[in-house]
Amino acid sequence: MLNRRWAIACATAFYCVFAAVSGVAQDTSDSARRYIVDVWNTDTGRNTGGGLPHSTVTSIIQSHDGYLWLGTRYGLARFDGLRCELFHEGNTPGLGGAGVAKLFEDRHGSLWIGTETGGLLRIKDGQVKPLGIGENSPSNGAFSQRLVSACEDAAGAVWLYTADGQLWRHTETNITRFEFGLGRASACRSVVAEADGDVWVGAYWGQAAVPAGGTATNLVEHPEMQATLDYLLGSRLGGYWRCLVDGRIQKCRGNVVEREFGPYPWGRAMGAVSAACEDLAGNLIIGTRGNGVFWLDAGGNLSPITTAQGLPPGAVLALCMDREGNLWVGSDGGGLSRVKQNQFETIDETQGLSKNAVQSVCADAHGGLWIGLNEGGGAYYWKNGRVTASGRELGLVPTYVRPVWSIIADHEQNVWAGTYGSGLYAFKDGWFRPVAGPKQIHAIFEDRQNRIWLGTQEGLARLENNECRLVKSTDGVSIDEIRALADDSEGGIWIGSAGSGLSRYLNGAFQSWHAGDGLPSDSILSLYCDADNVLWIGTKASGLVRFHKNQWTRYTITNGLASDRITYQIEDKEGHLWLGSPSGIMRVAKKELNQYAAGATRFISCRSYDQADGLPTKECTMESQPGACLDASGKLWFATAKGLVGVNPKTLQSNPWKPPVIIEDVLVDGQPQNARPLRGEMPARLEVPPGKRRLEIKYTALNLSAADKSRFKYMLEGHDLDWKEAGNDRVASYTKLPPNTYTFRVKACNEDGVWNEEGRNLEILVQPPIWRTWWFLTLVSAGLLGGGAGIVHYFSTQKLQRQLERMRHQEALEKERQRIAQDIHDQLGASLTSVTMLSELVEGEKDNPEEVEAYARQIAQNTRDTTRILDEIVWAVNPVNDTLDSLMSYACKNMQEFLSLAGLQYRLDMPEQLPKLTLPPEFRHNIFLALKESITNVVRHSGATSVQVRVRLESGNLILEIEDNGKGLAEMDEKKLLTRNGVRGMRKRMASIGGQFSLVPGREKGTLVRLVAPLEHR
Fold first, then answer.
1. H/E element holding 419?
2. Fewest beta carbons within 10 Å, which of 104, 141, 615, 974?
């Protein structure tokens, strides 16, 4: 009762009461809210399957190409922000299997590795080279020889300091050994280089300098060094940091202390300095052996980062600040941690709220926030970092039936709270009082005319004279379960329902749109109408929708959003839409959304914030309005399932770093091709053997702030027509690429949409099979052309041959006709003429029987000769006789008859079987006549009593020899013999068929006639 009276009394000053009330107030200065810690180890890791080879991380560096290199007890690992790749003696010859104690990279990109067993390795251009440093140490045990500190001076020399006190200066030409406490135990071993060239060496008991160009004999101890030393760290801004065991932190330059930062803020028992680094502004970060990490800010204050912020327990062994501003912590048994500055503010149960989900939030004019909670959480008021009043003190008793799903402060700073089950409440006179009307309220909205509208389970309602009245439809439009409300410049009220689509109420009439009208879904969760009268619609499962001038544009996960469920919307003063979703809070530039609607782009850059950015959960609440608000300072507040989240868009720092893009490997049919070696580069050109079917290109982007939110585009020039949106996928696959030369291009952006447009390129030559090579195609083409030409030539030649054959045949026929005509004229004509003349003589001598008888005998002889000549002509013409056998049979028959009539003996020598050869008529005729002439000459002129005829076939020739035993050629002049008609005729006939004629003395005094006729072309 006392609390109630107190609240009523204080309400007379209206909202000033809340600044004085402190019943549930809590301090929000907890440093746990300043940092976000993510942890990777052998078992777990954000958005990865872990991947660390060992949970003890001893050393961390970021190399020039952007990778994070980790030294662990199980070896060397390379980390791209998403996954680790382990290097060992199995995949990197010469690396060995020892644990890694220290890593260092020089300005030339060489990686220096100090192993746990004392060996020191240098990796340059992908080649591992042992240096042999520490092998001759007089101290006991290889562990004491391990590398513990390294630096590079202004001249480019690398300084290496081992656990037993060996100090080495390494250049490309020589290695020089120094000594500082050799063999003397020390928990501190540090070597740092100043920009002016001096190198400082520190051990537990003291500090000394090696001047530029110094030798092993002139280490100069610090003249004012009286306290023992914990750590030395070179500064990127010049000078160096010094941590002293007596509890002081100093910034020094040479022998001069430039600034004192006071004593250690942690205890000494378990707080020795074990690691240190600088942030991007040059501020010191210290890792301890038992009290976590301490970050020095610009004001000189050290903020702790401990297990309370999520840092794993155990000694901090390594610290590294990457180029994006992330702090990486390696711990003993705790794996790898990433620490980021938290830019979001969270109001939850630690500041007086109940543990219930925040359902609604609204800012008032006094810098305070009204907060509605679900499941009986009631309403709260928050101001100046503390909850100053709750529903219990203000009359809105938190019960299960009174979850506050909607709360606003109107233009007169009246507060209205809509509950799910108990209706509307008005805050008056310091007390929440019920207002008659619908019991289930999802949305409360004040339009530009300062009218209060309510979205209820029963439909649209309006607040009039402090009464809640349902707006009834006069045109039969039914709208219930209203989830969202908005207004436009014309005074229209836009209404989004759970299942009835989109409606607009203006001048007492409703107009509706449904899924069939272009609206992608009838289930609407949020509405917002901007200054340009563009209506933005958040759906339950169909993404964000833009509606302007009857044009619909839809944005989904496919176009770049993080979720297709849009629970609430709000616009900041920087031109961005902020969207609540189950996958985090999304920020999208309205300009980019409008460009997409105009067709100027096909993808939108959407920044999604979740636990990795400091949110207590990525789940934003839904089915309530307002779910987000903008306060007077420009800060945005969002309702989530685990508290209220705030951020100032003006001071929100984006990641400006363009992530380096690296092509890590190429697989052809599953087999690696030129995998990127340790510290090496992929070749600029890759050849794919012929006949391979599948090409896979693995790439990554070194975005260490949010590797899981990187986005990629790639294109295979010569194959793809445009860039392909790959999201966060890191493999490009192609199948059955035609032989050609391609260029694979890939580029990436970070979580804030900053693109590395240069990206990375790789030329890929897909070799053709042998039958598609240029020389093979040239040979085949030449062969085809030659073959085609040969075929054309063959058929043309054949055609010409046939034409020529026909012409030859025609010519032969003409010759044969001429020969027959000539024979008929010469022989038959002469015989018939002789018969005619003898017949006339018979007529004249008819009275002289003796003369008639003589003439008659002569006529009979001539007639027989004519018959014989005609028989020869017919034989020569008949094609049946066009054979060698027929020729010889006919010739021998005539020769036998003629010699028998002449009374000469003859002998015929002839092969038993003659070859079956076809002979042309002219050939047969000339052979026959030459043979006949030879026999006739024997009978008429030789005076022989016998004749021998020999027929032989030799070397493709037909040889006929006619030899008699007559008087021979001795009595005849050779020249005169050659002029005789018979001899001249035989020679001419043999020459006409390509043969030979010879007339020589016989073996037995007589004459030998040789006729040689070729048969090979017949």
1. strand 415-419
2. 974
